[in-house]
Design goal:
Distance between the termini of chain A: 34 Å
Number of helices of chain A: 12
Low-confidence stretches of chain B: none
Helix content of chain B: over 70%
Order of helices and strands of chain A: EEHEHHHHHEHEHEEHHHEEH
Number of domains of chain A: 2
Strand content of chain B: under 5%
Mean pLDDT of chain A: 85
Structural class of chain A: alpha/beta
Largest interface: A-B, 28 and 21 residues
Shape of chain A: globular
Radius of gyration of chain B: 24 Å
CATH architecture of the largest domain in chain A: 3-Layer(aba) Sandwich
CATH topology of the largest domain in chain B: MetI-like fold
Oligomer: heterodimer
Number of strands of chain A: 9
CATH class of the largest domain in chain A: Alpha Beta
Number of strands of chain B: 2
Strand order of the largest sheet of chain A: 6-7-9-8
Order of helices and strands of chain B: HHHEEHHHHHHHHHH
Largest sheet of chain A: 4 strands, antiparallel
Chain lengths: ~270, ~325
């Protein structure tokens, strides 16, 4: 969404396509008209994502007034409805409250209300439940899912929590050190993980009704992004590491069942189908 | 809020009592007084005058007399000018206030605008230029800038008058009077603004740099708000909060006058009066003025606390 300022954030290459348009080629104004309107976003920390000196009402009404050209009154009215829609009672009181007066779960609901206010086509949720406890987490996810179904809105969910993935996702992309290592439909991916990293991830989550002394964990640490070389980034933690893994980066290849993975182990299998 | 105010007012009174004691002791126990300096007087006449002014009484009694009068709104009688202290204040303070209010206003406006832009474009050529200029303005002493500008603008180019508040011998009234005063105050205001704007700009720049890194600024951008709205509605309000403390300190500065500037530009302000009184040890006036500044300081702090409450919903009093 172009929210990270240069020079801290730079887009090295590629394209970001949305509804047939490359977002990277849009003018600043055009991109601004999309932000919060067609694509909106919710963040990790609801407590720090809302402005402490503005009321919930003011912050909720802003995108409505800008993108929907609503007047102040109409925007406030819509804000009240939105607060009710995200499951908070006493909207008249909440609208005048400041962020520090609400709990984390309520703030994340408000963030969602802001994000869905202009009926976006895509909602990017960056670890939306990381800062919340498990009960609230489930409520928030339920709510996101129901909005997705009722409004035909897509969700791009960024998370490290495989439980959340299994519950929410249709299609999963697994990334490691900034590279896509595997992607596929949620069922295939959970049943037949191909990449050693995905396999490791799935092995390291607890399974119900199985007593285990210690959970599996992938050996080693995530590599320092400054020291990455032309190799498979996962090679030093991989139990199937081969010579080629240390020398060349594997490309992302489609496998026979439509799943994609970037691993030299599957290179021959994939090559047959190319 | 009510309980808070009562508590604060009690503290205020206690602080002012302590301050008055300190101020009185400092001036009363300094060797010498208004009469010592006058070499034309005979010892008998000196003793007579001391008796008359009450300077030979015990310290405690003098302090109590002073305080008693102060409670009745009488801050004593200037020995040098032979007028009540408050009348003198009233004559001089508004001249100082005029300079201070205009330059403070300009300083804040300029500092906020430049600080915000410099923070937004951190490390750009504009930011670098501003930083160099600020360091230059902060490092050069006021008397140098003052004299330098008098030399260039008043003496060489003759654009502005070099000093005073009115042209000598002028008896302009109405619009012409206002014009004359504005012309005369331009130079001192420029110098005072130049001196003040540096530190304040740096203050706003660093506050703003902290604020624009916050998550809620990212949220504001993600909502599709214009940069102007992000900066001035979402960021600036948060960046201004710590500056409220400074508002409290500005209050005594507004009325306190400026010793150096008023001297250089021969401005008839309270700073000049204070300097004159100092050389002749006109203690009633000096004590009155110091006490006045103490009162303003205490009120200023109280004011900034109350303002804080009004501006930041998280602050409960």
């Amino acid at each position: 969404m172009g929210l990270i300022e240069e020079p801290a954030g730079q887009i090295a290459g590629g394209a970001i396509e949305f509804e047939g348009e490359n977002l990277l080629e849009l003018s600043r104004n055009h991109l601004r008209a999309i932000r919060g309107n067609e694509i909106s976003m919710i963040f990790q920390e609801p407590m720090s994502s809302l402005n402490p000196v503005l009321t919930i009402g003011e912050q909720l009404a802003e995108p409505l007034m800008i993108h929907r050209k609503l007047g102040r009154k109409a925007a406030q009215q819509r804000a009240l409805e939105l607060i009710t829609e995200v499951g908070i009672s006493r909207p008249e009181q909440i609208i005048r409250a400041y962020p520090h007066e609400l709990s984390g779960g309520m703030l994340q609901r408000i963030m969602i209300a802001i994000a869905i206010s202009c009926e976006p086509k895509l909602l990017i949720a960056d670890e939306p439940t990381t800062a919340l406890d498990v009960t609230i987490q489930a409520q928030i996810l339920d709510m996101l899912r129901s909005f997705r179904e009722d409004r035909g809105m897509s969700i791009l969910l960024i998370t490290h929590d495989l439980g959340v993935v299994a519950e929410m996702a249709d299609y999963v992309i697994v990334m490691y050190s900034g590279k896509v290592v595997e992607e596929g439909g949620v069922v295939e991916l959970f049943e037949h993980p191909r990449h050693p990293y995905t396999q490791g991830l799935l092995r390291s989550k607890p399974v119900m009704n199985q007593r285990q002394k210690a959970l599996y964990s992938i050996p080693g640490y995530v590599p320092n992004p400054l020291e990455l070389t032309a190799s498979c980034y996962f090679h030093d933690r991989c139990e199937h590491c081969m010579d080629i893994c240390r020398e060349r980066q594997p490309p992302l290849r489609e496998l026979d069942n439509g799943q994609k993975t970037a691993c030299w182990l599957y290179e021959k299998e994939a090559a047959v189908h190319v | 809020m009510g309980a808070y105010l009562t508590r604060r007012l009690t503290y205020t009174i206690l602080i002012l009592l302590a301050a008055s004691l300190l101020i009185f002791s400092l001036y009363a126990m300094t060797p010498g007084d208004f009469i010592t300096g006058n070499i034309k007087l005979s010892p008998e006449r000196k003793a007579e005058l001391r008796e008359l002014y009450g300077l030979n009484k015990p310290l405690l009694e003098r302090y109590l007399t002073w305080m008693n009068q102060a409670f009745h709104g009488n801050f004593g009688y200037s020995l040098d000018k032979q007028q009540p202290v408050l009348t003198l204040f009233n004559q001089y303070i508004w001249n100082s206030f005029l300079l201070a209010i205009v330059s403070t206003f300009l300083t804040w406006i300029i500092a906020v605008i430049i600080g915000v832009i410099a923070a937004y474009r951190q490390y750009s050529w504009f930011d670098t230029l501003v930083m160099i200029f600020i360091f230059a303005a902060m490092s050069i002493p006021s008397f140098f800038i003052g004299l330098f500008l008098i030399k260039i603008l008043a003496v060489d180019w003759k654009w502005l008058p070099p000093g005073g508040m009115l042209t000598t011998g002028s008896n302009a009234t109405g619009i012409a009077y206002i014009r004359e005063v504005v012309q005369h105050m331009t130079l001192p205001v420029i110098v005072m603004t130049l001196l003040g704007v540096g530190s304040l700009t740096r203050y706003f720049r660093s506050n703003m740099i902290d604020v624009i890194k916050q998550d809620y600024i990212r949220t504001a951008r993600a909502k599709g708000l214009s940069e102007r709205r992000v900066l001035f509605t979402h960021a600036l309000r948060n960046a201004l909060l710590p500056a409220i403390t400074l508002v409290g300190f500005e209050l005594p500065a507004l009325f306190g006058g400026s010793l150096i500037i008023e001297r250089i530009f021969n401005w008839p302000g309270i700073g000049q009066l204070y300097m004159q009184s100092f050389t002749v040890r006109d203690y009633p006036l000096l004590m009155g003025f110091t006490m006045f500044i103490a009162v303003l300081t205490v009120i200023g702090t109280l004011l900034s606390d109350i303002l804080y409450h009004a501006a930041d919903p998280r602050v409960k009093l």
